[in-house]
Design goal:
The complex is a heterodimer of chains A (412) and B (259).
Chain A (H helix, E strand, L loop, with lengths): L11 H10 L4 H16 L24 E2 L5 E3 L7 E4 H6 L4 H7 L10 H9 L4 E5 L9 E7 L7 E3 L2 E6 L4 E10 L6 E10 L4 E9 L5 E10 L4 E8 L4 E10 L5 E10 L4 E10 L5 E10 L4 E10 L6 E11 L5 E10 L4 E12 L2 H8 L5 H17 L5 H17 L3
Parallel strand pairs in A: 1-6, 4-7, 5-8, 6-9, 7-9, 8-10, 9-11, 10-12, 11-13, 12-14, 13-15, 14-16, 15-17, 16-18, 17-19, 18-20
Antiparallel strand pairs in A: 2-5, 3-4
Helix pairs in contact in A: 1-2, 2-5, 6-7, 7-8
Chain B lengths: L5 E10 L6 E10 L4 E5 L6 H9 L4 E10 L2 E2 L5 H7 L1 E4 L11 H13 L5 H14 L4 H5 L8 H15 L3 E5 L7 H14 L5 E6 L12 E6 L2 E6 L1 H10 L2 H6 L9
Parallel strand pairs in B: 3-8, 3-9, 6-7, 7-8
Antiparallel strand pairs in B: 1-2, 1-4, 4-5, 9-10
Helix pairs in contact in B: 3-6, 6-7
Classes of the chains: A alpha/beta (412), B alpha/beta (259).
The structure holds adenosine-5'-diphosphate and magnesium ion (MG).
């Protein structure tokens, strides 16, 4: 569809006009203008780039997809002085505006790639979560993006989230993404997380897009001293789900835990790229990505654990396990270590690709479980180590049901 | 006459991957309802192969002969079908099932065996009672199946499943190995208590230790894939006293011995 009509919304003039039309502050309009110029100038990533080796987007024309509106719902009572709601509202607010301005786009600059540039220029319905020093959200903030079939066919959505957690604060955000089964939807998401000293930030992404939606996300967190960031992604839906999940561990003793789970069927394509960047001393990271693949689905994992020269006494774990539930499923796994100092506590990495354990399978069969029941139990167990402490109880139940329902009909 | 719980008729079996290696060379055996049979034999004689073949393990293929459960020919049935019909195998080496709790497994297995969900309350009561019989804590039931279990815990966990699933035929493969005397007594008493009058039990062992606690109606000696001698409980005592050599010698099976 290279020659298909391009959406006029991506040009600089249109971007500026749209921003002004929404009454956005001048700095934001300027940021968007710069992003639209970057978008025009930047090439699409090619498979020559290592993180894109197995996900070919050369035929994808982002600006062939007209921006569609998708206003997420946000539920979550903020503590005193805190905020969980529309990013645009916060940007225009006298108190919150400067906080947004100081952070938005500084961790994931629009100039770093085609997809993030498109997002910076086009995001609408973004979310801002702000926790002041020493405060905590009593309950998880729940965000839902739901793009129904219909007008959004051949459309693009640009989910955006900014989380600013000040020192000793605490917040959990659970985000759920849904779209209609037939929606040929393009989603380009950017999430920036600033975790202040000794803060606890917990993000959960339940990727439940319809089976024609393609998702390209960049989720990046930066930690100050003693901060603890946890990011978990559960990918069930989507035709293509490609996520960059990155922890930039700057503050001494800070830690990042990244969890990913994907359950594939049909020709679903999952691609996780992780980065654990140990900049500060005594930083800790732990990445665990697990996929179970039915049908002709496939997964790709490429992850880098990097310990910088300044990351003395770092400890890192990186693990990717892929369970092939059918002969046609496929997984590629490539965990990489880049250690630039001798002073590391531990730096482990492991990767496996293979079918279910035949002995375990026979054990369950010998207890009367048929093939599908046995597979369901083995997959649920396989995911358990990753999902056991992710999100709240209701979220885990929801996820268990999604897994169960998908496996009830999966091609195994 | 009531049908035997288990009948093996001229059973010959080989390794599925290496069909040229036959391990069972024609086994005949009948276990009537309520009976306990013991199969004894030196290491490598084919006891576990026999157990796995009866349970329907795809590791082995039946070359000849049949397996009947309560009169029904189940030789061609898959393992899960046999289990639902009432076959239970307590494994010599139970496999860990990562991330799956014993409660989870029991609920699924019971659902498969009964064809419907067991009411939660009834399930819990049975579970508590069965755990108690085996001197197992409730915490054991919440742990992942066989993960990080000691040898003794694994064997108890197998018998726990037997007690909950109430099979018609229970095959206990070396349930006594790896148990100290106290654990052995608990497990054996558990088996005695959980056994019902119409159940058949096949105890596989290469010592006779467990038979001090569970009295078999018949004892069979398996050597090189064949039952070479059968008798009553006194046969086990004979082996306890003298080992296998005298019997092997008598039958001309002792390697290196001149007849
Ligand atoms: N899957 C297998 N692959 C290769 N050899 C096997 C396999 N299973 C059993 N055997 C061989 O068959 C013989 C009987 O084994 P087994 O039934 O485990 O004996 P037992 O339980 O009496 O000690 C042994 O020689 C063993 O090595
Ligand atoms: Mg054995």
């Amino acid at each position: 569809m290279a020659d298909a009509t391009l959406s006029p919304a991506y040009g600089e003039a249109a971007v500026v006009a749209a921003s002004q039309g929404r009454g956005e502050p001048g700095w934001l309009t300027e940021q968007r203008a710069e992003a639209s110029r970057a978008f025009a100038a930047l090439p699409m990533p090619t498979t020559m780039l290592r993180p894109w080796k197995y996900t070919d987007v050369s035929k994808l024309v982002i600006d062939g997809y007209a921006p569609a509106s998708a206003v997420p719902s946000v539920i979550g009572a903020a503590p005193q002085g805190g905020f969980a709601g529309p990013l645009a509202e916060a940007a225009a607010d006298a108190t919150l505006g400067p906080i947004v301005e100081a952070h938005l786009g500084s961790l994931v600059p629009a100039t770093e790639g085609k997809f993030v540039a498109a997002n910076a220029a086009q995001w609408a319905g973004g979310i801002f979560v702000y926790v002041p020093r020493g405060q905590a959200f009593a309950e998880a903030v729940s965000v839902t993006i739901d793009v129904p079939d219909g007008e959004a066919n051949q459309g693009a959505v640009f989910p955006r989230m900014l989380v600013v957690a000040e020192a000793a604060s605490e917040v959990t955000v659970q985000m759920r993404s849904l779209s209609g089964a037939a929606a040929d939807l393009l989603a380009s998401q950017v999430v920036e997380v600033f975790a202040g000293a000794d803060s606890h930030v917990n993000l959960v992404f339940d990727v439940d897009w319809g089976l024609a939606t393609r998702d390209f996300s960049t989720i990046r967190a930066k930690t100050e001293r003693g901060a603890d960031v946890r990011i978990a992604t559960l990918a069930i839906g989507g035709a293509v789900v490609k996520q960059f999940v990155e922890g930039i561990l700057e503050g001494e003793g800070s830690q990042a835990r990244i969890r990913g789970v994907a359950l594939g069927d049909g020709d679903q394509h999952f691609d996780f790229v992780t980065l654990q960047d140990h900049v500060g001393p005594k930083t800790q990271s732990d990445v665990q990505i697990k996929t179970a693949l039915a049908g002709a689905s496939r997964s790709i994992y490429y992850g880098v654990t990097r310990v910088e020269e300044t990351g003395l006494g770092a400890a890192a774990e990186q693990e990717n396990r892929n369970l092939l539930l059918s002969r046609h499923a496929k997984a590629d796994s490539d965990p990489v270590l880049e250690i630039l100092t001798n002073d590391v506590i531990r730096c482990g990495h492991g990767a496996t690709v293979g079918p279910v354990d035949q002995e375990a399978f026979f054990y369950l069969q010998s207890r009367g479980l048929d093939r599908r029941q046995a597979m369901k139990l083995l997959v649920a167990g396989f995911f358990n180590s990753v999902l056991a402490d992710v999100g709240d109880e209701a979220f885990r139940e929801e996820v268990a049901t999604e897994v169960e329902e998908k496996l009830a009909v999966a091609h195994i | 006459m009531t049908e035997p719980i288990l009948r093996l008729k001229g059973l010959k079996a080989s390794i599925a991957d290496k069909p040229e290696i036959q391990i069972l060379h024609g086994i005949d055996l009948e276990i009537a309802p309520g009976e306990i049979h013991a199969v004894m034999g030196p290491n490598g004689s084919g006891k576990s192969t026999m157990a796995s073949t009866i349970a329907g393990s795809p590791t082995y293929v039946v070359d000849e002969g049949q397996v009947f459960l309560k009169g029904e020919d189940i030789t061609a049935a898959a393992a899960d079908e046999r289990a639902r019909k009432g076959v239970f195998l307590s494994f010599q080496y139970p496999t860990p099932i990562p991330g799956v709790t014993m409660v989870n497994l029991l609920r699924e297995a019971l659902k498969a065996r009964r064809g419907d969900e067991m009411p939660a309350r009834e399930f819990l009561e049975e579970l508590r009672a069965t755990l108690g019989r085996l001197k197992m804590s409730e915490e054991m039931a919440r742990r992942y199946v066989n993960e990080g279990f000691s040898g003794g815990e694994k064997k108890r966990a197998e018998i726990l499943q037997m007690g909950m699933l109430k099979p018609d035929l229970a095959i206990l493969d070396e349930t006594d190995s790896g148990l100290d005397v106290d654990a052995l007594r608990t497990v054996a008493e558990g088996v005695n208590a959980l056994k019902t009058s119409d159940m058949g039990i096949l105890i596989i062992t290469h010592y006779e230790r467990i038979l001090n606690y569970i009295t078999p109606d018949r004892v069979h000696i398996l050597v090189k894939g064949k039952i070479v001698k059968s008798g009553d409980a006194s046969l086990a005592k004979e082996i306890e006293a003298n080992g296998y050599d005298p019997i092997l010698k008598e039958l001309g099976l002792l390697e290196g011995a001149t007849a």
